[in-house]
Amino acid sequence: MARETKAPSERTRVKRTNQRAVYDRDGINAILDAQPLCHIGYLRDGHPFVTPTFQWREGDRVYFHGSAASQALRASSNADICLTVSCLDGYVLARSGFHHSVNYRSVMILGKAEVVDDPEEKNTLLNNFIEGLWPGRVATLRPNNDQEIKATTVLSLPISEASAKVRDGNPVDDDEDYDLPIWAGVIPMRTVVGEPYDDGRLLDGVTVPDHVLKFGRS
Amino acid sequence: MARETKAPSERTRVKRTNQRAVYDRDGINAILDAQPLCHIGYLRDGHPFVTPTFQWREGDRVYFHGSAASQALRASSNADICLTVSCLDGYVLARSGFHHSVNYRSVMILGKAEVVDDPEEKNTLLNNFIEGLWPGRVATLRPNNDQEIKATTVLSLPISEASAKVRDGNPVDDDEDYDLPIWAGVIPMRTVVGEPYDDGRLLDGVTVPDHVLKFGRS
Questions:
Q1: Which residues of B touch A194 (CB under 8 A)?
Q2: pTM confidence score
Q3: What ipTM is given for this predicted complex?
Q4: Which residue of A has its CA nearest to B103?
């Protein structure tokens, strides 16, 4: 498959350092699937707000959810928003302050966050979110009830107006600075999973399930 | 010192789960100082955008910077923005899907991002950012030149209209769900520093400096 090299819109076109731009869907999906944490940008009284939340992808859409009473969810419902996902992969230390940088992967999606109305669809989507993180967990849980589904807003955003940016590798210094006796390189960063602990209220015989033990290990 | 329990403005007041609200400056500063990665919300043509970047705090202000040619920096300059910092500390697994949650620390700062004009002040601030991450590094670097300082925009945001939210600890399940044989607890998450590597172009005798070896170890 040929890589998409053209931005879907002028406002998602990467203007600076455009050698870092990623417009093909596989590249965008890989970042979305690697990082559930996202930041939603929305307007309240004309002022931009940014709220962290979690996203999950199904096909050509990303979803996020929260309390129906949440200001962020209410302001995002059927409104134009920006959903940004970012992974910090490392600090890039150069021979001058100016050329210090970071290695990262990020995706920005613009569009209208559509409210999912149908309770059955909402329930399926919410279960998919949990299954995506911990395969097999939903079957072990007390199912969502009608009131809980009603109290939850699920928003759906098409991955149509989206672009990604990726930086990787070594610092890029000015030619003459390579003659200076300065350490330059990369300090890699990554997010790791700690040791799970239970809440001290498990019934006798309940053990740590595989979906918890395996989380983040693949 | 008494803890501040009142929000600085209606729009930074935490409305939902307000037992998680943090309004005192020490609590807010601790989160800002723990996490340089931030997400800036700004407007372009009336549409909200969210761009990841880095912040550093000096006293009652946070600063961020970027290329003077950056769309995000240009749109944020002397404009009302939202700067959000978030740390994901763990996934909270409950006995129902509904009560799944996350442990996190986040700060939201609203205000006008003021452009720092004075080249000397810009240079000092940019050096402070590097020193904050890697104490002692600036003295080892080729200094910034006038053109580099001119090509960099530094923005300053007062920490006046700010609030934080923190969740910690175990899941909170419905009373009757504690009788179910379901594993519930926390999967901690943290960001770790990997092994630094140089760019393969060091001069003979240049070794890894302490500020690199010690990064993230304190």
A1: 90, 187-190
A2: 0.95
A3: 0.95
A4: A53
How many residues are listed for chain A in this entry?
218
Q: What angle do CA B124, B127, B131 make, to 5 degrees?
A: 130
Collect all residues with Cβ–Cβ distance below 8 Å to A59 and sequence separation of at least 6: none
Instruction: Point out the residue among B48, B180, B198 whose CB comes nearest to the CB of A81.
Output: B48
Would you state the structure tokens that stand for residue A116, as one six-digit string?
């999912």
Distance separating the N- and C-terminal Cα atoms of chain B: 26
Q: How far apart are CA A73 and CA A146, in angstroms?
A: 19
Q: For residue B200, which residues of chain A lie inside 8 Å, CB to CB?
A: 170
| Cβ <8 Å between B181 and A206 | yes
Q: Where along chain A do its domains lie? A: 10-192
Please list the pLDDT of chain B residue by residue as tens digits (218 residues): 445 667 888 888 887 777 788 889 999 999 999 999 999 999 999 999 999 999 999 999 999 999 999 999 999 999 999 999 999 999 999 999 999 999 999 999 999 999 999 999 999 999 999 999 999 999 999 999 999 999 999 999 999 999 999 999 999 999 999 999 999 999 999 999 999 999 999 999 999 999 999 999 75
Beta strands in chain B (DSSP E): 21-22, 37-44, 47-58, 61-67, 80-93, 101-112, 114-115, 152-158, 161-167, 185-193, 197-198
CATH class for domain A10-192?
mainly beta
- Closest partner residue to B182 (CB to CB) among A104, A141, A197 is A141
**Interface contact B190-A188, CB threshold 8 A:** no
B37, B12 contact by CB (below 8 A): no
Q: Is the distance from CB of B29 to CB of B22 less than 8 angstroms?
A: no
B10-213 carries CATH number 2.30.110.10:
yes
